[in-house]
Write a structure and sequence with these properties.
14 helices, transmembrane, elongated, membrane, 500 residues, alpha+beta, five-stranded mixed sheet, 2 domains
Amino acid sequence: MNTVGPYHNRQETYSYFSLPFCVGPKEKISHYHETLDAIAKTPYCEIELNEVRLKTFVYAVKNHYWYQMYIDDLPIWGIVGEIDEANDVYYIWTHKKFDLGYNGNQIVDVNLTSEARLKLELGAKIKFTYEIHWFSIFNSFMMVIFLVGLVSMILMRTLRKDYARYSKDEEMDDMERDLGDEYGWKQVHGDVFRPPSHPMLFSALVGSGYQMLTVTFLVILLAIVGELYTERGSMVSIAIFIYAATSPVNGYFGGSLYARMGGKVWIRQMMLSALLLPTLVCGTAFFINFIAIYYHASRAIAFTIMLAVICICTFVILPLTLVGTVLGRNLAGQPNYPCRINAVPRPIPEKKWFMEPLVIIPLGGILPFGSIFIEMYFIFTSFWAYKIYYVYGFMLLVFLILLVVVMCVTIVCAYFLLNAEDYRWQWTSFLAAASTSGYVYVYATYYFFFKTKMYGFFQTTFYFGYMALFSATLGIMCGTIGYVGTSKFVRKIYSTVKID
């Protein structure tokens, strides 16, 4: 145990046992090691509230006292009690539930939940209890790797059969081939590299996704090396700086993709690519900020900061994106497809309902969301509760696993689509991967109603507005990596098969 003090004044701290908590059966508290297991609810001491103890606890609860403790040098925070203001009644939390995450023999994450509310009144006997739950991060990693391996193995075996069938078809003469039943992804070779609908928007999303992937990797790496989380606001400041500095990445990949698709109005595409995410973020943030100003909330952003962000978009992001676009169009803007594109689009045949893009897209996000489900809880707790997120090495590992899972799942989705002779794989692969963010937003909705105590128009708008930004950004990143992986896969299979 470490300290206790009023929540609204973090600088005022006292020894944890300055409150009349019972110290358990040990006369002297020292550093104590115990074998960690799934420990059931265990009482460790009991006190009776006399007048002094009652007044002390009531004062602590009235002033929103919180406490801090450490497990394996990992900090945990908890609250002493809560107030029923309607009835002027004070309660104390008597049960501590610890969730410990470990990798091998090392604890890497700790979470505390306070339960069992008891009314503070003279003469009450308070029994303090605790329990410990644990989960192995290593096991979840192995499960994800197993699923990815299984999907890859099934896909490779299916492709071998396709290659064998197509090789047999090549040995037939024209009459045999005409009489045969040709089907599968080879039949759409003249349309598979046809530009998708709305190429300007598509290339802008992919360019923004490349940039956000770069920003995410750099911010996580800097957090691991430099401990950015120890200073308030440092994470947001460095993220804005890196986003502005990496604008050429957006221009290069978005501009080159648009050029390969035959796009002509590249200035408009560059503007859309540069301002897509900043407009989304600033528009949402400014709208929420006006509500915050109306409610006189401390979350309100100063007008000068809003003006500074607009200046960054105008004088930094736009010029750097222009530089990247020019480089991308000149260095990687020439189409180099392994198959010719037919002048007339091939009609898409009817197929079973589960092969339709509208069915494939929502199914594509289930497995990627499952791979990050556990980590979402701790990230949300860091966002909306009063905890510091400190396991950035683990976050990097989860993020890499997410990208691998997204890539494998979207490749499988695209294969099924092409095998049904539907060549609309670009948007399908992007949206199937991006649908992961839809499940994240649904989980965020659950978290709001069951894990937070937010209420009112401002708090609801604040939460769902920023969670929509978080989910949209995650969706753009996942969609980009899904499209890029699928594009490599499609090029590979069509460059290997002989096309007449």
